[in-house]
Amino acid sequence: xxxVSQSPSNKVTEKGKDVELRCDPIxxxxxxxxxxxxxxxxxxxxxxxxGNSAPDKSGLPSDRFSAERTGESVxxxxxxxxxxxxxxxxxxxxxxxxxxxxxxxxxxRLSVL
Amino acid sequence: AQSVTQPDxxxxxxxxxxxxxxxxxxxxxxxxxxxxxxxxxxxxxxxLKYFSxxxxxxxxxxxxxxxxxxxxxxxxxxxSVHWSDAAEYFCAVYAGxxxxxxWGLGTSLAVNP
Lengths: 113, 113
What we know:
heterodimer; B: mainly beta; four-stranded antiparallel beta sheet; 12 strands; 54% strand; globular
């Protein structure tokens, strides 16, 4: 079946512009995570959605970052007024709920010039 | 505090040689432990996981890992490495209280022909 799909795969933007990243999780997966991965570094947790519960936004680095998810479907991560330090790969993962078992998308590589 | 340490940032092995990647964790309760692999340009894929029971767990692609509670370790092994195993390997522990994975910084594996 289809895996986690992220779009776009690459995004180049100018400093100060807003960007929107999209994630299509695996159908039926109730949990959805966003991570940031800077070059040569590990995964940095950003936000977690679980069903209709309030999302865990504790990892969002600033109020320029926001994310939405409607029900158990598509999620969008929005970065406003992008800065060069926002350049990274943004990974989305979904889970059916089995602890720690995540299915990852291929990521969106964001470059802020 | 919960944490995961992967002491080796980069490892190079020859094709056909054995491999061991180290992972140490700090977690107060019985851990759920994971190894994920990230091939170039791709998202992360689950290699194997430990929840309970037999401390030696088998995963995909011929990998195995052994949970040693006394050493707080969960080292990944493979008896004979293939060139296609070149990738970034991440160890993680599941923090059940907040449903998050705590990630190590990763070990980059290079395979010489």
